[in-house]
Each structure stands twice: as structure tokens, then as C-alpha cells.
Amino acid sequence: MKRVLKISAWTIGGLVTLFLIAFIFLWATEWRPKSVEQVYAIDATNLFRLKSDTITVLTWNTGYAGFGFDMDYYMYGGQQTRTSRKNAAENLDAITRFLTECDADVILLQEVDVHSRRSYGVNQMNVYRDALKGYTGFFAYNYASRYVPFPLRAPMGEVQSGTAIFTKLPAVEVLRFQYPGIPAFPRNLFDQKRGLLTARFITQTGHNLWIGNTHNTDYNEPDIRFQEVSWINGWFRERYNDGTTHTIVGGTWNQTPPNYIPSTAEIDDTHFRITPVSSILSDGDWMLSYDTDPLDFTARYLDKPVHELSTVTTIDYFFMSPQVECIDVQAIYLGFENSDHNPVIATFVLKN
What CA–CA distance (Å, rounded) separates 192 from 228? Predict the structure, then answer.
């Protein structure tokens, strides 16, 4: 009996030691983003003015090429944690081909992995850079954890991922801003820390144009969603008040746009609580622009693989300041074959 107790004590002690080592490792390697980080800057701004007042911007949540037609996901009522290596490679190839053919002036991508177990260690940013000739690419982290221990039956492992801007237009500055609402301990050791990646351009008339890329929280945390939207609204309105700044922000808001009517399936889903985006974004002459066609949805739910009865929604769109007119916006239906989101492309005219 004493021998059994001794072995049990050693076993428990060993497990506790391993847990402490893992905790110390995660704490020591935790990504602690600054409130603002400069990604790129150039001084000779007068040499890099835009040549046109019409700009085409595409936004696409690529789902790290991991959410093709075959996938459901454990966090949203499904069972799986990652797709096969073969499907991941095929998804990435298809996404890359589409991007090379879309011919947008600026491309905003969300969920771009640079070294993650879930996407088999492929640096997707490098894949896109190599393929998108004529574009300059900028990347900022949204997720950087050396080890994500969930789900316990099949841990995600390392995740290094973020957002990207690819532009044919000459950016003069690129910044990454940390959103409020960083997860509390211990989630901060292995959860996302979302922020805004934004690039500044100089218009023909010498005004500033900020084009931002956002991927807001998708968890059932309305307070954090509101904090993020409030930060976006405040930061860009503050710069607009000087009268020389235009704003376009695109991405995955994980909230429905104004006047969108969700289906019963969207409302009843307990894993992804659909909520409308705060009306503060559309106060005054500021606008939100999305594809209003009732058949052109931008994302599917991940409780099941792609199916004729898949729940779909619209959570990808654009936010614009006054004096920016959206003359066309389209969600491009790709059947959710290679991502759980469809790309959205819009054409904007800058007014002086």
C-alpha cells in the first residue's frame, strides 16, 4: 500500500511539475503587443501621391486556408480542429489564384498564418507575397502563442497569425494598433489579441487616406465587440476632424451591418451569437457599405461542413468617412469551397 501511495505521489508531483514548466514557458514567451507599432514609414511623402481618386479595395477572411468545404469547427458546434494537409494546400492554392486575378488596388486579408500547426507550418504571407506581383505586402500579428492547449483531445499547438495589407498604391506609413479588451489571465497566454492594421496614403490633393484592416472578436463577448468598434470609431473620427483625412476600414466585423435582418437559424445558434454592429459607426455622415443582395452572404457558420442547409450571414463590409463614396460593393460568392468567408470587393471615390 505504501508503495502504491509513493508511486501516486511521485506521479502527481511529476504532473504538477510539468504543468508549472508549461505555465512558465507560456508566460515567458507571451506576446505582449504595444499600443501602437510602426510597421513601415517613408519620409518623401510628396513623391508618393495617388494618381487617381477612384480606389478598389477587396477584403477577405481567408480562414488561414483551413476552413474549406469539408470543415466544421469544435468552437462553433462542430467536431474538427483542422483540415487535412492536402486540403489545406489546395485551399491555399485556390485563394492565391483568386487574389492574383482580382486586380484590386488594395487587398485586406484576415487570418493569415505565418507559422501555425493548424496550417502545417506554411508561411502564407510569403506565398501571397511571391504570387502578388506588383503589390507590396504588410503584416501584423493578431494571434501569437507558442502553444494553445485546447481542445484537450487535440490541442491547436503553436499559432502565429494575423492580418495583411497588399497594395499597388504607394503607402507612406503602416501602423498596427492594439484594441482594448485583451483577454484576462490565463487566456492572455494563448488567446488572440486583436488590433487594427492600417496604411496611410497621400491623395492627389495632399490629404491623408487611411485604409484599415480589422478582424473583430468572434466570441460571444458583446462588451469586447463594442470596445473594439468604439476604438475604431473614435480613432478615425479624431483624425477626420482636422478636415484633411479620408477613411476606409474593411474586414470581418463579426457583427451584422445596419438594416440586416438575421435568419432564425442565425438567431438561434448558441455558439456564435449574432449581434448588430453599434450605430455609433454610422452617426452623422459616416457610412457602412455592404452587399445588400439577400442572396450574397459573406460567411457561413461552422457547426457543420458546407451543406445546402448551412447557416449563412453577412459580417464582412466597409466603414467610410464623409467625402468617401462607395459606388459599388459586391460579395463574391465562391461557394465556401476554400474558406468559410466570401471575398467582398468595393469601389470608392474620394471627394475633396
Answer: 13
CB contact at 8 A, 159 and 148: yes
How far is the C-alpha of 284 from the C-alpha of 302, rounded, in Å?
Answer: 36
CATH number of 33-350: 3.60.10.10
CB 322 within 8 Å of CB 36:
no
The angle that helices 124-131 and 85-102 make with each other, rounded to 10 degrees, is 30
First-to-last alpha carbon distance for the chain, in angstroms, is 85
Q: What is the pLDDT of residues 62-100, one digit of tens each?
A: 999 999 999 999 999 999 999 999 999 999 999 999 999
Q: Which residue has the cell 448558441?
A: 270
Cα 290 to the center of its chain, rounded Å: 17
**Phi, psi torsion values for 166, nearest 5 degrees:** -115, 130
Residue 4's pLDDT band (boundaries 50, 70, 90)? low
Place of cell 485586406: 108
| Tens of pLDDT, residues 239-270 | 998 777 999 999 999 999 999 999 999 999 99
For 155: left if phi > 0, alpha if psi spans -120 to 50, otherwise beta; the answer is beta
Which residue type is seen at 14?
G
Q: For 219, phi and psi rounded to 5 degrees?
A: -80, 165
Query: Taking Cα atoms as reference points, which of 249, 287, 50, 274 lies closest to residue 165?
Result: 249
User: Among candidates 123, 106, 113, 124, which has minimal Cα distance to 148?
Assistant: 113
